[in-house]
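pasting for ref. prot 1 ->
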Amino acid sequence: MTTCFYCFGRVECHIGKKVPIMHENDISQILNTWPYEQGKLNARLIEAPDGRQLIQIRIELGVIQMEMAGRPDGVLQDGYSTLLALFEDRGAWGGIDPEMCRRLREEGVQRSHRSAALFALGKWGAVIQDCDQNLELFNLCRDNAQEEIDREALEQFRASVIAMRARAGAEWAVEEGEPSKGVEAVNRGLNELKETLGEGWESSNEVQLLLGMKEALVPQLPPSERADLKERLLAAISAENYELAAILRDE
């Protein structure tokens, strides 16, 4: 019997059935009209036959397609749109076993890929929603996993998700013509990173990224807001409130 490679082509596969050639499944036209670009996240939105939006990412060897809502792979989890939604409804009584923690991590990875694509597409609200849900998933595993290794596994990614959410909030505010709200979004992210990372937090890549973004945003503030900050800074120094002065100086 001729064996197949993942049952492609008109060959007799391992279950002994003929597999017909399906020309409509050939994605060569998509790949040829949408070339892969090295060093860039190549993402786009398309419309499915039923009208719903889908995200596509062009990778070197093909195309990844994700749903805009629910799990990126679109697979229901015991009737729920996501595992996170399942636990939100049923709770985590008795803790979460290692196998379920592994499945939750896989869902988190899917969502992180989608949020990166949404960021490249400028879908700021959807980015923030995905980041919020991943942080909820991190908390779920941290607080309820039965094994210590599962409680700690996702913590290494928390800072990057916080930073992405802050960046998306700042970009959204700038797009809406409100740079002061953009600075507020960055400041909230910095405060969360300080709490998350603890001592030495200033040296992290995520913090440096947000500080650079903040530095670019401050000159866009209206003159009145900048003047108000300077006035408050001088008042804090005069009152010898150096902690407040340091905060205002950073602003």
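and prot 2 ->
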Amino acid sequence: MAKDKKKDVAEEEVIEQAEVTEETPSKEEELLKQLEEKNDQLMRMAAEYDNFRKRSQREKEALYAECKASVINALLPVADNFDRIFANPDGTLEDYKKGVEMTFKQFSEVFKSLGIESFGEVGEEFDPNIHNAVMHTEDDSVGENVITTVIVKGYKLGDKIIRPAMVAVAN
């Protein structure tokens, strides 16, 4: 009987150890579980980033279209005035000239309201950062590197050059 009792106790210990082993995962299983969790987190983060990137691109495109529409909306009254000028078949040359002058003034005001400034005037010092010299002239009445002729005005928005001025410069 003592042998049976010892045998029973030994069997119970083996069963308890097996239960403990089944209940507590091994170090390897624990590491695999952590790896799966980190992999899942990484996949979610990658998906979130991809969604963020796509959303940012859509917002950028929408903002671009909105800005473009805003500028066009500011220019529409100028286009309307040109339509009125050319729709008047009974106008005299003086009427057309006056209409074009008024429309050009309105166009200049629209540029000013948008923060666009023109530059490149005769007599200014030539600056290669904002001017594009397309011709050189020999003129002793002005100094060296002075703009003698403006072929195309330059335009800037704040510090950003939209288009450099095309000018002739004295040597």
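The first strand starts at residue 116 and ends at 119.
The mean pLDDT is 89.
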